[in-house]
């Protein structure tokens, strides 16, 4: 079984110079510093990535892997979901990034592979808008409901409102933007740390949405599209429980998330997921020091095969 919400193929980037990026630390409260050498940290991240690829392939997901050999100073390259996204009907978007090191992650060979192996009608490239100081960091900044045609977006300098409107016009989505803060009152930098949407359920920390009316709207719209809302706590978000992605595997739907994230969920929450999908826990503790988890590592391919 496949779902419009759950791609059966993904792109992942194998890191060779991974580190917790100093350029993004100011607004990413999830980042921490690894307590070992750069070489050991990078090697551990690469091992975690390789095991994640292996687990996804074992589950029947097609994984296209590209190596990043670290010669471009791209410490966050393991998180490709921020610089491009793909959409049913053959559409690809390329995004402007907030900090210079992340702009260097964009690569033509990934787009060329998509064109060769999948039906690509057009590539809409917003990246030139970086010159105007604008950013819209892909499916980190936007959590897409492909079934309800809604884009959920936390307001931040990584999600410019003008660009968001432009994206929604091009790709036929309705934008729902809101402010969100963590338990310490810090602004949330990416929407996909507090929200993940599956086919029949949605993981979201409603308490992080600061405006009560907006909070009610988000909850109502998720339910309108047939999802059961799994309301996460601040503590669960701190364990990356919102940073999950549903995929179509060989035997049905799976929910890829980190081992840490799954351990933070309650039995009742897991039971809701398991009614339609099988959780696939992946251990990525080193990669999580950079402030992203399993969902950030996976760029879904929502395109038809050639």
UniProtKB/TrEMBL annotation:
Name the UniProt record assigns to this protein: Amidinotransferase
Alphabetical list of SUPFAM superfamilies matching this protein: Pentein (SSF55909)
GO MF terms held by the record: transferase activity
NCBIfam families cross-referenced by the UniProt entry: citrull_CtlX
Alphabetic keyword roster: Transferase
Entry-linked InterPro entries: Amdntrnsf_FN0238
Entries under PANTHER family matching the protein: AMIDINOTRANSFERASE
